[in-house]
Structure formats: structure tokens, C-alpha cells
Design a protein that fits this description.
The protein is mainly alpha-helical. It contains 10 helices and 3 strands. It has one domain (64-315). A 3-stranded antiparallel sheet has the order 1-2-3. Helix 4 (124-138) packs across helix 9 (268-286) and helix 6 packs antiparallel against helix 7 (242-250). The chain is 37% helix and 2% strand. The structure holds 1,2,3,4,5,6-hexahydroxy-cyclohexane (INS) and fe (ii) ion (2 copies).
């Protein structure tokens, strides 16, 4: 791994700002993948409870961990503004922090535990492999989807000192559009009241700075591991499909893929890609368990996928 640059300053004064109108990137649909209609008989079975014995994504259960999660969302919702997102995209979109392979990044994540997650407190590499292996059971032929499972959370590397050691609220948790009204279905919605954009008439309407059917790639999402990994995968990809990029960018956008909010911003391509995202979510969420994967055993398979879809070293 080559660390190219010292970490950027986090508060204020970050690099060039994205001043212009929303300048997001194009998602080109490959159209090559058709969602299979039948499922194999014996596949991944989603459990009823998470690794703490609670139902999944229950943000109101009484527990020590849940208090931390609620605290996390309070800070997240207060600070994720249009200005903040533009600043982060401008800075991290340069991809000039580190050069390393995908597998090196998986290993870097070993030390981090996600404070926003009520369902899992294992190191992240476990979660990546659990997700990928669960998908592999049910969709053995969709190797790009296995790889998506492996890499979808790699953006959490923003927590690492080489990436500016961003605070958890700027890296993990559910995501949502900024620049238009925050939908009520977003977890712990009440904390948006203290977000300066909440009172800004340019941003607090149904469409805000967007328009009907403008396409999600034109929408600024709250900043974190999803958007960052999307930028990395998009800029470094050789053969990785756009459905995979879509999953990476929106996998934490539960208001969309679980609550059907923000549909008015979607275009035709988004509607197609959402089918894959909904499939993916099952494995991302319900594979969270205490069952450990033997990393050395599955490593050769994932290295072969990485080689097929990405260059040996990526710019991060
Ligand atoms: O707590 C989790 C976690 O950070 C995941 O990586 C993210 O995708 C989820 O949406 C979030 O709620
Ligand atoms: Fe995630
Ligand atoms: Fe995940």
C-alpha cells in the first residue's frame, strides 16, 4: 500500500469546493443483467433475530448499544448539510489519498466497528465476507454481485487515519438526500430539526434543488462510505457493472429501498437498478451474525473476482 498524501484537514478549509450546480456522475446502465426469477431450493435463510437476539433494525429497543446508535444519528442528522456534502465530494473525489488493492482495503477495515449499526458489532471484514458468501449461495452465477457484497462497505476506510480519520457520523449509518426535504421515514428523523438546511426554503421542499425524475445520480446523498466507495469504484473500474455501482451508492438509502420514499427523483435506469438493490439488501442486512467465515479459505475466490473487475491497485 502506498500512502500518497497526509490526511486532509477535516473541519473547514477542505480543498476545492464544488460550487456549481449539482454535478453528479452518470450511471450508465449496462442492461446486461436480468434478475433471475427462481431461487435455488436450499439457499441463504434469513434469520429472525440479529447477533444480539433482537429483531433487525429495531432503533427503539432498550439497550446500551441502542443509546450509542441514537446518539450517532443525532450528530449525523445535525451535520449532514448540502455544504458539507459538496465539500466532502470535492475533497475525496480527488482520490489522491492512497494507492492500494481492494484486498488491502478489506484488511484495513479489520480494526473498525460500526457505531451506527444496531445489528452487528463484529469487525467489518466479517460483515463483507458474510454478505458476499450469502449472496453466492443464492446467486452462484452472478459473480459481480458477490464482489459487490465484498466491496460495498469498503468506504468505511474513511475512518482510518490515512483518510482523515473522519468521525463515524460522516462515514456510516443510513443515508438520505440533502438539498430537499428529509423524509419522515428516515431513522430518528426528529434530529433534523437542528440541521440548518431544515429551515432553508431552498432545501426544505419536496423537490428542493431537484426536479421530477431527475435521476438519483443527480442527487446529493448524505456523505459517507456509500458515496465514497461509489466514487472509488466508478473511477477505478475496468469491467465492474453499473448495477454494482448503483448498489454501492444507495445500499444505506433505506428510505428508498425499504420505505419507497423519494421515488419522484428516480429515472428509468434507477427503477431497473432498484430491483438489484432490493435483492442485495436482504444479504447485507440478514447475513449479520456471529457465524465466522474462514477468510483464508474464501480469499482465492475473491481475489479472482477482484482481478476480473478491477485493476491491481486502485486510487483512493
Ligand atoms: O448502520 C448501518 C451500517 O453503517 C451500514 O454499513 C449501512 O449500510 C447501513 O445503512 C447502516 O444503517
Ligand atoms: Fe454500508
Ligand atoms: Fe453492509
Amino acid at each position: 500500500m502506498t500512502i500518497l498524501i497526509e490526511q486532509p484537514e477535516f473541519e473547514g478549509g477542505i480543498g476545492e469546493r464544488n460550487k456549481g450546480p449539482v454535478d453528479e456522475n452518470e450511471l450508465v446502465l449496462d442492461g446486461g443483467f436480468v434478475v433471475p426469477e427462481t431461487m435455488p431450493d436450499e439457499g441463504f435463510v434469513a434469520p429472525d433475530t440479529n447477533s444480539f437476539g433482537h429483531t433487525f433494525r429495531d432503533y427503539h429497543v432498550e439497550s446500551e448499544r441502542q443509546k450509542g446508535v441514537e446518539d450517532f444519528y443525532r450528530t449525523n442528522h445535525i451535520n449532514q448539510t448540502v455544504d458539507f456534502v459538496r465539500r466532502m465530494r470535492g475533497e475525496y473525489g480527488k482520490l489522491n489519498k492512497v494507492e492500494m488493492s481492494i484486498w488491502e482495503c478489506c484488511e484495513l477495515l479489520n480494526e473498525f466497528v460500526d457505531e451506527s449499526d444496531p445489528d452487528l458489532d463484529e469487525p467489518q471484514i466479517e460483515h463483507l465476507l458474510q454478505t458476499a458468501e450469502a449472496i453466492r449461495k443464492d446467486y452462484p452465477d452472478e459473480d459481480w454481485l458477490h464482489l459487490t457484497g465484498l466491496i460495498h462497505d469498503l468506504g468505511k476506510v474513511l475512518l482510518h487515519p490515512a483518510f482523515g480519520e473522519l468521525p463515524q457520523w460522516a462515514v456510516v449509518g443510513d443515508t438520505f438526500p440533502v438539498g430537499c426535504a428529509y423524509d419522515e421515514s428516515i431513522v430518528h428523523h426528529k434530529y433534523f430539526l437542528e440541521n440548518p438546511d431544515y429551515k432553508n426554503p431552498v432545501y426544505n421542499t419536496k423537490y428542493g434543488i431537484y426536479s421530477e425524475g431527475c435521476g438519483l445520480d443527480n442527487v446529493l446523498m448524505s456523505w459517507g462510505h456509500d458515496d465514497y466507495m461509489y466514487l472509488v469504484a466508478k473511477e477505478n473500474k475496468s469491467a465492474f457493472p453499473s448495477a454494482g455501482l448503483f448498489i454501492i451508492r444507495y445500499h444505506s438509502f433505506y428510505a428508498l429501498h425499504r420505505a419507497d420514499a423519494y421515488k419522484h427523483l428516480m429515472n428509468e435506469e434507477d427503477i431497473e437498478n432498484l430491483k438489484w438493490l432490493k435483492i442485495f439488501n436482504k444479504y447485507d442486512l440478514y447475513s449479520k451474525s456471529k457465524v465466522r467465515i474462514d477468510v483464508e479459505e474464501v480469499k482465492p475466490y475473491y481475489l479472482s473476482l477482484i482481478k476480473k473487475y478491477f485493476p491491481a491497485k486502485l486510487k483512493w
